Amino acid sequence: MIEFKLEGEFIPMIQLLKATGLVQSGGEAQTVVEDGLVKYNGNVDYRKRLKVRTGDLIDFMGNQIKVV
Fold first, then answer.
1. Average pLDDT estimate for 2-19
2. From CA 20, how far away is CA 40, in angstroms rounded?
3. Residue 19, exposed/middle/buried by CB under 10 A (0-12, 13-18, 19+)?
4. How far is CA 40 from CA 7, 13, in A?
5. How far apart are CA 67 and CA 39, in angstroms?
């Protein structure tokens, strides 16, 4: 599990995927979200600009990101 320390109030989903190194670019992040490969708190979510906040859990390709 990856623990991501949130600096502000939220981080957009595509920026979180880039910041954790799970994707190489913003374009790749947008594609994986649009293709339904990302789960937000257990549910597939297609929103690229989704505001991820402290306490949220993201699943992507067998990796979990816990936002702290």
1. 96
2. 15
3. middle
4. 19, 9
5. 14
Q: What is the pLDDT of residues 17-32, one digit of tens each?
A: 999 999 999 999 999 9
What's the pTM? 0.92
- C-alpha 55/C-alpha 16 separation (Å) is 14
With beta carbons less than 8 A apart as the criterion, state whether 40 and 52 touch. Answer: yes
Strand order in the sheet with 57-60: 2-4, 63-67, 57-60, 38-40, 43-44
User: Distance of CA 7 to CAs 10, 25, 47, 54, 61, Å?
Assistant: 8, 21, 21, 10, 25
